[in-house]
């Protein structure tokens, strides 16, 4: 039976059916918390790193470089994690398709938590010398490996627990975690820096959000250990067993879907991470806004990621993921070209508006994508295939724009960066149109 919520229990009795429905509702909220809190923690860790890379790391870990070179080096360490993400996708995708979604998601959470906490206690370059940025890169790679397995796993966990006609809403849960994390990361930095001098913030204040993530990991780990494996995965294992090499099977069976899937999240990733990194730096260095104003705008902007994810998640089961994704990405083309001319007007209000619109569009793509991508692949290698597609897209969309942004703006103008983002949104539109909308199909029958 496709639909999990069945008002009659297996014995057909109405009374038992009510209890069964109550149990199903309780399980739904457990799945919601499990998939969202893990993604919240993963993206919180990525978000605070992005903010720190823009505001702190150039002087803490690259003090011998010029201001521009320090920012570039700092953003390069941010991008290193995206290079590691596809490797993490293959590794944890393999484990997820062989050992199960639950065990793998526990592993990604622990790895991310340990790496992030260690960044928080890492001595600066003034103490460790060249070893400090090297250690930072190693820990950033560990973050990337963990993140490579998290998004696909969290979305599969939600989608494979969901009834067919509610899959879009259930796949919305992990995106809510990501949305909350953007505001949470900026809020943590904002509250940490209240009444603190810039020197104190650079010395120890920036470390607090990283160390505090250990508490979030403990909560997330407790919740994840309480939930059962997905019924779709259990059924696939019972019927067909597990594949020895899911990676090879995925590439052999569905290479086109994997390749095209790499482009689905280009606009979402580039908009999210250009907001977390370059726009934060741009507001501080070029628009001369205070650190408090920039972080407050980021905290508000994170709410618009949430609004976008909620709106599209509630609509995707009714309108269709493909339709929503095409519309949002096409809108992203236009907004990319308008973004920097509007930003050039200056002022904190204009910056906040631009940040909120950019993040809303990113959030609006996230929920339909969370269901749309898993619907393209078969259960036996769905984790691996989804992770490869998503993380290759994250590599291209999350690391390249922040890395090339200073060079593009320096060599040409901010409008050149806008054109670059528009190209990404255009590619995402074309890739979405090239794949089917599987909202009415059972994941067991893909």
TrEMBL record:
It is a multi-pass membrane protein. Keywords: Cell membrane, Membrane, Transmembrane, Transmembrane helix, Transport. Pfam families: MFS_1. The chain crosses the membrane at residues 46-65, 71-92, 104-122, 134-158, 170-192, 204-225, 258-280, 292-311, 323-343, 349-373, 385-409, 415-435. Residues 31-440 form the Major facilitator superfamily (MFS) profile domain. Its main location: membrane. The keyword DNA damage does not apply. It is found in: Cell membrane. PANTHER family: INNER MEMBRANE METABOLITE TRANSPORT PROTEIN YHJE, SHIKIMATE TRANSPORTER. This is MHS family MFS transporter.
